[in-house]
Amino acid sequence: EPCIVQMQRMLAGTSDTISLAQGIVHWQPPEGALVAASQALRTPLASAYCADDGLPELRTALEKKLVKENGLNSSGVMITAGANQAFMNLVLTLLEEGSGAVLFAPYYFNHLMALQMTGADVVINSLTPELQPDLVGPCGLEEAPEEILEKALKRPNMRMVVICNPCNPTGVIVPTETLEKAAEMCKEAGVWLIVDNTYEYFTYDGVEHTCVEAPHVINIFSFSKAYGMMGWRVGYLAYSKEREGLLDQLLKAQDTIPICPPVLSQIVALKAHQLAGRTWVKERVKALEHNRQVVRSALEPLGEGAAGAQCQNGAIYMWVKLPEGCEDDKK
């Protein structure tokens, strides 16, 4: 059972308890986006289907954003009902029962559930002491532990590697050189690299988020946390236009699950992007720095490692060490 569902049931009927199981932000979408939604609500467009891969004007705006902000110059866009649905589309399109897929522990639990539901052979790889994906390990391949990517890619059934950047739940940003190395290794192995960039704007301490682009790399993005649109459910994936036929296959999954993302939600997303954009989001993320320091100060008395590592400079999470005697968090 998902931990979020467990917490929802546990807290049902209470009013003075805060759940830390689900990452949410405290802000609402930009006012101009909500006004646009109100104006569009009674129009025929809001109640109709749109193109399966999303409103053309939103896709066009996001393709320009990908070039300007992410350095993705040859990527097409598919709008989805949130980033989770984008990932599910990719799992259904790129894998079959028994296909190998790599996750780095600790991983985003929804990624694991999506892979398990579709019968994938999930391989859990480890992180380095700096909480980065362990790609090659400290020794030769023959002596390397099973938990490094280099060894996992030797499996004949391997089809997909998943990286979350910034990482949910560690809060660590994966540097460009690591992404490039992972992309290179996946290319050599004939494996897809999926990068979930949901928290691309949530960076601290002067560290910036970057993306990589290649025909075998697919990037996932989300409006949920950046624009306070959790319940509106809008995400998107950026796929290589060089992969002929990929969009056609993705559309099979899209048309089977939501048909198309909710049109009214897409209108809110478009206006949020046009009227507010990155600067608006970064202003709100900057205000979270105080929250991070408050949490760290509260945890420091619990001992070494309790307040998280200095390398945790992204997302809205902190990967901390439980106090001695509390290693089992279910008791």
Provide tags for this entry.
11 helices; alpha/beta; 331 residues; seven-stranded mixed β-sheet
Describe the 3D structure.
A seven-stranded mixed β-sheet has the order 1-7-6-5-4-2-3, sandwiched between helices. The radius of gyration is 20 Å and the shape is globular. It is α/β, with parallel strands linked by helices. Strand 2 (100-104), helix 6 (109-117) and strand 3 form a beta-alpha-beta unit. It contains eleven helices and seven strands.
Q: Would you kindly provide a brief summary of this structure?
A:
The protein is of the alpha/beta class. Helices cover 37% and strands 12% of the residues.
Structural class: alpha/beta
Strand order across the largest sheet:
1-7-6-5-4-2-3
Radius of gyration, in Å, reads 20 Å
Q: Distance between termini?
A: 17 Å
Question: pLDDT under 50 segments (min length 5)?
Answer: none
- The succession of helices and strands, N to C, reads HHHHEHEHEHEHEEEHHH
SSE blueprint and pairings:
Elements: H1 3-11, H2 31-40, H3 44-47, H4 56-70, E1 75-80, H5 83-94, E2 100-104, H6 109-117, E3 121-125, H7 149-152, E4 158-164, H8 176-189, E5 192-196, E6 217-222, E7 235-240, H9 246-256, H10 263-275, H11 277-299
Parallel strand pairs: 2-3, 2-4, 4-5, 5-6
Antiparallel strand pairs: 1-7, 6-7
Helix pairs in contact: 2-10, 4-10, 5-6, 5-9
